Amino acid sequence: MIPPISVESNTFRYTLDALLVRSDDLRRVAATVANAAMHVGLSARLNSAPERLVLQWELEHVARDIAGVHADLEGVIATIEPSEWARAALATGGPWPAVRRVSEWVLTHAPWQSAAAPWEPVTMTRRIDNANAPRDFSERFARIPTGSERVRIDRFETATGPRFEVYLAGTDFAAGLDNPWWVGANTEMLASGASRSMSAAESALGYAGVTGTTPIVLTGHSQGGAIALAIANSGRYSVEAVFTAGTPAGLVESPANVPIVHVVHPEDPVPALGGVIRGTAGTTWIVHTEPRATGTDAHLAKNYQQSLGRVERVRDPGLLSLENRLRIDGQGTAVWFRSTLSE
């Protein structure tokens, strides 16, 4: 079992990305050391300096050791994923500059752009008055709604006033144009940093009593995570943290000065569709699915829920510190929302 790996979002996005770069570094270092050994040996023979011959032998030994580590690393990469170079190039947003040009053409000519509504009405579908506050990322993720309800908002009273926990579902791939969470909302997000699904989420925030000064924590899966990042980046809300899983985070500019935690499966193609994560100092957790899942199966919420449990068991000091800072006591009110397209 490959353990969860934590990396800074602005350094590497996925395990394979990091491994491939390090592998290339090792290859170049081994070649450099071997080249240095050759020049030291040549100098030793020209200057009759036996001590340089010893240095040549030591350098050649180091070069062989580095080459051996490089070979081992290449073997590890190959066991993680067959044809890793192609999959890793896609998963890490490598081809995104070229894909971006195609997507920009699609955005310019897409028929759904004119149908995008600036605001969406929402309906509260149910409510409970004894919701416990979440303790960690895993508990937050478990509260993301499913089905026709795409937003859940919990309100808790604290010594300094109300605080809200907001949970945002991902794309509804079966939805049509009358549903803000349809697949085209991702393209809208890429085009403008906003979408009808984001408008629906903000409408739910207003319905729940969220203002520009009340603190909120946002948790989203897939498109829901992109909406969370866009809301945080809008500057219209007091966002204390953003948690995402399986999110194409590169769809929007990530906010500055907001703690962000991403969890991604290297086998999940959806995060790669957003391209490289932009403008965030957040942390990305790389977790392989166990048992191994690929493609859309790796994107399923239930698989991310299992992976989040593995992340929590690592007991990472940084993640624990953030979760403890966000922790509140007592019970609150939870409400669920369904949205429809404006006429």
Keywords:
2 domains, 9 strands, elongated
Structure description:
- By secondary structure, this protein is α/β, with parallel strands linked by helices.
- It folds into 2 domains: 87 residues; 221 residues, Rossmann fold (3-Layer(aba) Sandwich).
- It contains 10 helices and 9 strands.
- It has a 9-stranded mixed β-sheet, with helices on both faces.
- β5, α8 and β6 form a beta-alpha-beta unit.
- α1 runs antiparallel to α2 and α7 packs across α8.
Poorly predicted ranges: 87-100, 112-116
Give the strand order of the largest sheet, numbering strands 1, 2, ... along the chain. Answer: 1-8-7-6-5-4-3-9-2
Task: Using the alpha-carbon principal axes, give the shape.
Answer: elongated
CATH level 1 class label of the largest domain:
Alpha Beta
Gap between N and C termini: 51 Å
Structural class label: alpha/beta
| Number of discrete helical segments | 10
Count of beta strands: 9
Order of helices and strands: EHHHHEHEEHHEHEEEHHE
- What characterizes the major β-sheet? 9 strands, mixed
Q: Please tell me the overall pLDDT.
A: 80
What share of the residues does DSSP label as strand, in percent?
15-25%
Portion in helices: 40-55%
Number of domains: 2
